[in-house]
Amino acid sequence: MADKSRHSAPIARDTMAYVLAGGRGSRLMELTDDRAKPAVYFGGKSRIIDFALSNAINSGIRRIGVATQYKAHSLIRHLNRGWNFLRPGRNESFDVLPASQRVSEDQWYAGTADAVYQNIDIIEAYAPRYMVILAGDHVYKMDYEIMLQSHVDSGADVTVGCLEVPRMEAVGFGVMHVDEQNRITDFIEKPADPPAIPGRPDTALASMGIYVFSMDFLSEQLRRDAADPNSSRDFGKDIIPYIVKHGTAYAHSFNTSVVRSSAEYGAYWRDVGTVDAYWQANIDLTDVVPQLDIYDRDWPIWTYADVTPPAKFVHDEDGRRGTAVSSLVSGDCIISGGSVHRSLLFTGVRVNSYSNLDHAVVLPGCHIGRGARVSRAILDRGVIIPDGLVIGEDPDLDGQRFRRTASGVCLVTQPMIERLHNR
C-alpha cells in the first residue's frame, strides 16, 4: 500500500502527466450525449477526470497535459475553472490540448498514441525526463511516484500499470502475460478469450491504461509509430505490443501503489463506463464504510466547486418531513418535506413535499415534484420530475419511457420527461 506521506519527490518533479480524455463513453448512453466520459459527474461534486488529475497532483507531479476531443466543451470549462491553480512561475504547467489538426489540417486524434504525438512539440518544450500516460475515465486513488520509482529501478523501456480482474471481465482491457520478474512477455488488446494468469484460471492481468516512459524513449516510439502506415496509432494496440516484442516492458501492480485511508480495506478501482457500473459506484458511496474514501484529507480529490449555501432540510410533520438517511447531500440542496434514502444528490437539487428518493443518483439542478417516487435511477443534470411521477416500480412502463438497463436501473433525461407530455 502507498505511503501517503510521500507527496513530492525528485522523480515526480521531473515528470509530466498526460491525461487522455477524448473518449465518448458510448456505453453511458445519454449521459455522454453532451459531454465526454471524463466530464461525467461523480461522487456528489466531482467529475470522473478529477481522480486521475488529483492522483498526479498528490503524487507530486506539477506538469500536466489533458488531451480532449469528443464534445469537450463542458470538460474544458471544468478544467479551466477547477485546475487553473498551477503556475508557470513555480515551474508548473497545465495545458488543455484539444484535437486541433496540428499535424494535418484534416486529421483529428487517430488514437491514444496520436493524441500524444500531435502535441509532442509542446511536451518537449517543457523537457520532462519522464512521462506518465493516464486514462481520464477511471475512479481510483494511486501514488504515481511509487510507479515512477519502480520504472527507474527496473530499467524498463515502459512500465504498465495493471490490476487483477476476473478473466472474462478482461475482454475490454489489454491483457498481459508476465514472467517471475514481472517482465511482460505478451500483451493482447481486448481479447475475446482473455488468457489467464498461470495457475489462476479465472483471473487475468489487465492493463489500467497507465504507462510510464522516459521522454526520450517515448519520443522515439511515437515518431516510429507515426511513420508506420499500418499502425492504428494506439498505445494498447501498437506501441505497447511493439515494445514487448522489441524492448523491455514491465508490469506494475496496482496493489503496490494504491492509496488507502485507514477506513479503506481494498484496492479500489472502477471503470464506471456503463449505466449500471456508474449507478452502483455512486450508490456505494452511501455505505456506512464505503470502499472508496472520498473524505480522506491526506489524498484529497481536487475539483471545481460552486460557491453554494448549505444543504437545507425543512418541514417536520407526519408524512411531510425533510429527511435524508444513508445519503450524500451536496450544497444548495433543499429537502423540503420529502424523504431521501441511500441516494446521492449533487449540487442544487430540490426535493419537494411528499416525494421519495431511494437508491437514486441525482445530478446537479434536478427538481423532484410533489408526491413523486424515484428508485434505482440516475437523473441527468437539470431533470424536472413532474408531481406524482413514479420511476423504478413498473419495469414495463419504465422501459417504454426511459433508458432501463437489464438490472433495472433507469436513466432519465429531460427530453425523456418532455416526451411524456406529448403522449
UniProtKB/TrEMBL annotation:
<keyword id="KW-0808">Transferase</keyword>
<keyword id="KW-0321">Glycogen metabolism</keyword>
<dbReference type="InterPro" id="IPR029044">
    <property type="entry name" value="Nucleotide-diphossugar_trans"/>
</dbReference>
<keyword id="KW-0067">ATP-binding</keyword>
<protein>
    <recommendedName>
        <fullName>Glucose-1-phosphate adenylyltransferase</fullName>
        <ecNumber>2.7.7.27</ecNumber>
    </recommendedName>
</protein>
<comment type="similarity">
    <text>Belongs to the bacterial/plant glucose-1-phosphate adenylyltransferase family.</text>
</comment>
<dbReference type="InterPro" id="IPR005835">
    <property type="entry name" value="NTP_transferase_dom"/>
</dbReference>
<keyword id="KW-0119">Carbohydrate metabolism</keyword>
<feature type="binding site">
    <location>
        <position position="109"/>
    </location>
    <ligand>
        <name>alpha-D-glucose 1-phosphate</name>
    </ligand>
</feature>
<dbReference type="GO" id="GO:0005978">
    <property type="term" value="P:glycogen biosynthetic process"/>
</dbReference>
<feature type="site" description="Could play a key role in the communication between the regulatory and the substrate sites">
    <location>
        <position position="108"/>
    </location>
</feature>
<dbReference type="InterPro" id="IPR005836">
    <property type="entry name" value="ADP_Glu_pyroP_CS"/>
</dbReference>
<feature type="domain" description="Nucleotidyl transferase">
    <location>
        <begin position="18"/>
        <end position="286"/>
    </location>
</feature>
<feature type="domain" description="Glucose-1-phosphate adenylyltransferase/Bifunctional protein GlmU-like C-terminal hexapeptide">
    <location>
        <begin position="309"/>
        <end position="412"/>
    </location>
</feature>
<dbReference type="GO" id="GO:0008878">
    <property type="term" value="F:glucose-1-phosphate adenylyltransferase activity"/>
</dbReference>
<keyword id="KW-0320">Glycogen biosynthesis</keyword>
<dbReference type="Pfam" id="PF00483">
    <property type="entry name" value="NTP_transferase"/>
</dbReference>
<comment type="subunit">
    <text>Homotetramer.</text>
</comment>
<feature type="binding site">
    <location>
        <begin position="189"/>
        <end position="190"/>
    </location>
    <ligand>
        <name>alpha-D-glucose 1-phosphate</name>
    </ligand>
</feature>
<keyword id="KW-0547">Nucleotide-binding</keyword>
<dbReference type="InterPro" id="IPR023049">
    <property type="entry name" value="GlgC_bac"/>
</dbReference>
<keyword id="KW-0548">Nucleotidyltransferase</keyword>
<dbReference type="InterPro" id="IPR011004">
    <property type="entry name" value="Trimer_LpxA-like_sf"/>
</dbReference>
<feature type="site" description="Could play a key role in the communication between the regulatory and the substrate sites">
    <location>
        <position position="69"/>
    </location>
</feature>
<comment type="function">
    <text>Involved in the biosynthesis of ADP-glucose, a building block required for the elongation reactions to produce glycogen. Catalyzes the reaction between ATP and alpha-D-glucose 1-phosphate (G1P) to produce pyrophosphate and ADP-Glc.</text>
</comment>
<feature type="binding site">
    <location>
        <position position="174"/>
    </location>
    <ligand>
        <name>alpha-D-glucose 1-phosphate</name>
    </ligand>
</feature>
<dbReference type="InterPro" id="IPR056818">
    <property type="entry name" value="GlmU/GlgC-like_hexapep"/>
</dbReference>
<feature type="binding site">
    <location>
        <position position="207"/>
    </location>
    <ligand>
        <name>alpha-D-glucose 1-phosphate</name>
    </ligand>
</feature>
<comment type="pathway">
    <text>Glycan biosynthesis; glycogen biosynthesis.</text>
</comment>
<dbReference type="GO" id="GO:0005524">
    <property type="term" value="F:ATP binding"/>
</dbReference>
<dbReference type="InterPro" id="IPR011831">
    <property type="entry name" value="ADP-Glc_PPase"/>
</dbReference>
<dbReference type="Pfam" id="PF24894">
    <property type="entry name" value="Hexapep_GlmU"/>
</dbReference>
